[in-house]
Design goal:
Layout (H helix, E strand, L loop, with lengths): L1 H10 L7 H14 L4 E7 L2 E9 L6 E5 L2 H7 L3 H10 L8 E3 L3 H8 L3
Antiparallel strand pairs: 1-2, 1-4, 2-3
Length: 112
């Protein structure tokens, strides 16, 4: 029943949360504003490991793609990138950002 009340409040666009909830949300946003995260970037029918990189103030971002040589050094193959795209329901001819797989994450965790 409590979840239904929360959903009803959200649907009415009312704000009934205590100040502590709002402060916790602000802290979370501040902590995450410069987070960089890896993903598979598909562009022009080519897949690459990429990172979303945010500016210091968090107001702008850009995609930084790894080169083929860097991916080879990391042990990340094109087959692994294509598998990640497939697992996300994408295709190599659909440009976009796709989540990495557990296999790619494991390779990245080996970097020190």
């Amino acid at each position: 029943m409590e979840m239904k009340k929360k959903i009803d409040r959200a649907m009415r666009n009312t704000t009934l949360s205590p100040a502590a909830d709002f402060e916790a949300l602000q802290a979370k946003i501040k902590a995450m504003k410069n987070v960089q995260y890896p993903f598979v970037d598909v562009w022009n029918c080519r897949a690459a490991l990429a990172w979303m990189v945010f500016s210091e103030d968090g107001c702008s971002s850009h995609v930084e793609r790894h080169t083929d040589e860097e991916m080879e050094w990391l042990g990340i193959t094109n087959d692994m990138l294509h598998a990640a795209v497939d697992a996300a329901g994408g295709a190599i001819n659909w440009s976009g950002h796709y989540p990495i797989t557990g296999t790619i994450k494991e390779r990245l965790e080996l970097v020190q």
